[in-house]
Specification:
Elements lengths: L1 H18 L4 E4 L9 E6 L4 H10 L5 E3 L4 H6 L5 E5 L6 H17 L1
Antiparallel strand pairs: 1-2, 2-4, 3-4
Helix pairs in contact: 1-4, 2-4
């Protein structure tokens, strides 16, 4: 129960922070219906480019279709970015994620 609560808290915080970033579109349900996974797109930045920029900032995400190509096609999505959280992740890391997204937006 504590692990689930921590994942939901981080997912909720991530949704709040991503809502502050212009051009970011979150894919999926509200925080209370999530596990520690948040998929999103960033306008004008391909998810693979975003993953590369974030890697340089010490933030690991995944870019692609995440073994869910039929679902992506069903909703008219190309590749998406995905951040995943677990017990060892912190709010500070979410802040670094958002700062890295903003850096990538400035480059592309």
């Amino acid at each position: 129960a504590a692990v689930r609560a921590h994942e939901q808290e981080l997912a909720g915080y991530t949704l709040e922070r991503l809502a502050e970033a212009p051009g970011v579109r979150v894919i999926g349900p509200p925080a209370e219906e999530r596990c520690g996974v948040v998929a999103f797109t960033v306008e004008s930045v391909h998810p693979h480019d975003l993953a590369h920029v974030l890697d340089g900032e010490g933030v690991a995400i995944r870019g692609g279709r995440h073994c869910a190509q039929p679902l992506h096609e069903r909703f008219g999505l190309g590749a998406t970015a995905r951040a995943s959280f677990y017990v060892y992740n912190t709010r500070e890391e979410v802040d670094r994620l958002v700062e890295g997204i903003q850096k990538a937006q400035g480059w592309f």
